[in-house]
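re: that chain from earlier
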Amino acid sequence: MNKPDAPSNDLAAFEAAFTAAQDTAPNTAHYVLRLFVTGTTPHSTRAIVNIRKICEEYLQGRYVLEVIDISRRPALAEGEQIIAAPTLVKKLPLPLRRFIGDMSQTERILLGLDLRQSAA
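^ sequence. v structure.
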């Protein structure tokens, strides 16, 4: 009996990452991130560079970053209820979090990704 091919869509990738994230400790969790930008504006470009730098420095080998241009894929932005760009959405590990801006406030991003403990 032949096995059906696994679906190659966003839902399948999300479910696989979710399962992997549930089976790992917080410091080894796999992150699924979506960055919504508008074209190649300086603000969007800065956000892409900044979040890639953060991911490579703090999440090396344990993240998936999808950059979505909302001018080309408006349905995805609507589905995620994106009202400003750039917006980073942390899908996994839960809880879901959103960050708006050029991702230059590294400490704020690290706190929101649960990679740093709050000083207070």
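The chain has four helices and four strands.
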